[in-house]
Structure formats: C-alpha cells, structure tokens
Amino acid sequence: MALKIEQIAAKSVFDPPGYTQTIKVTGAQSIILISGQVDYDEKGSVGHSGDFAAQARAVFAALKAQVEAAGGTVANIVKLNTYLVDVRHRAELAAIREEVFGKKAPASTLIGVTALALPGWLIEVEAIAVI
Fold it and tell me: Would you state the pLDDT for residue 112?
C-alpha cells in the first residue's frame, strides 16, 4: 500500500483557511518524531536574537533538514506543535508557515508559553512526519 496523507475536516466543524483540522495517514512505513527545533547560531547560542521572523524561518529550515535526514520531505510532516513566547506573532507565523507548507499546513497546535529553554528564543516547533 502506498503512503497516502489526506487533510480532513468534519462538516460540522468550522475549517478555517490556513489550518488543517485532521490528517489521515495510510500506508506509512515509518513515523518520525522531531523534537522541538529552535534557532541556534554557529556557537550553539540563540540565533537571530529579538528577530521573530528570522528565528521562525530558521526553525522551519531545521525541521526541513531533520525530516530530510530521515528520508522524507516537508510534505511528510503531518503534525506540528508550535510554542510562542508572544502569541502576537501568530499572523507573522502563519505567513512563514505558508512559505514552507502552502495554504494548508499540517495538523497543528499553537501554544503560548512564558519562556523557552534559553532566554531569547521566541519560537520552538516540534513535528511528526510519516514516511
């Protein structure tokens, strides 16, 4: 059976643009669990300090690299959990996610947090992919 990833929304539930309610996966051979990715600089410190857009792009580049290292592509990512220190970046995040995933991103959850592991990180994203 070939891998098939479908986006689904129950007819009784509002399906907002830019959001995927449910992902159904059939025929998967592997499940890839990607730990929270953050923006590191070349020395292992916080990258792009104070620049949300640059951090977000670096985080999604890291997710892309991780899923590719496992043999997939961003199209194989079916679930995202995103942690923001400031949820006012939500609209900016949506535009950056669209650069990576198109209009309908994977199933996702956005969580506002008071802090991440290092002061200065503004975003962390973890993912699940199927291959």
Answer: 98
